[in-house]
Amino acid sequence: MSLISVRTRRPKHRAVDRLAELAAEKQSLINQLVGAAGHITRLELQLNESRAHRAEAEQVAACTAADLEERTEQLDEARAELATTRALLAPYLAAEATAGAVTVPEMERDTAAMEDQATEPINVLPLWEAHGISPVIRIADTPSNDPRTPSWVPSPDNETTQTLRVITA
Questions:
Q1: Strand, coil or helix: what is 76?
Q2: Separation of alpha carbons 148 and 136, rounded Å
Q3: For the whole model, what pTM was predicted?
Q4: For 152-163, how does the pLDDT look when each residue is reduced to its tens digit (9 = 90+)?
């Protein structure tokens, strides 16, 4: 029997194929470089614009701070002048207030009319005290002829009556 060796073909590494791959990669990198250069240019323009805005804002802030200091000094001077003026005018204002004061004698309330009568506290009682009844119905002890016993209450000899017995102390 003869042995036949089966050999699989492996792709050959050809230099031409490798050169084509490298050329394609080179072209891709050049395209990326051009795109990156454009992007970098745009970012540098934005950076220059933001630096210009920052310089302008710093200048405005410096002017505002100087103006604030000036206004604060003016305010302090005005407050000091106002305090001095008030101290000078205080006696004159007090004399004017005293001269123009309206004095009224003490008032006495006329209570002759009924609606002006003084009131006294209202005596509020619970209903059972106001009507002379107790708050608890003692079912077991209540006679059947008592007018305060409701008609739905069972008679004292009923078993239900014994369980409803209420004892007050």
A1: helix
A2: 11
A3: 0.35
A4: 665 555 554 444
Those residues whose C-beta lies under 8 Å from the C-beta of residue 134, and which sit 6 or more positions away, are 128, 168
Which residues in the chain come in under a pLDDT of 50?
A: 160-169
Q: In this structure, what DSSP letter does residue 135 have?
A: S
Would you call 140 helix, strand, or coil by DSSP?
A: coil
**Cα 25 → chain centroid:** 61
User: Residue 129 in contact with residue 144, Cβ under 8 Å?
Assistant: no
State the Cα–Cα distance between residues 88 and 30, nearest whole angstrom: 86
Q: What are the tens digits of pLDDT across the range 69-102?
A: 999 999 999 999 999 999 999 999 999 988 888 8
Token pair for 54: 């920052």
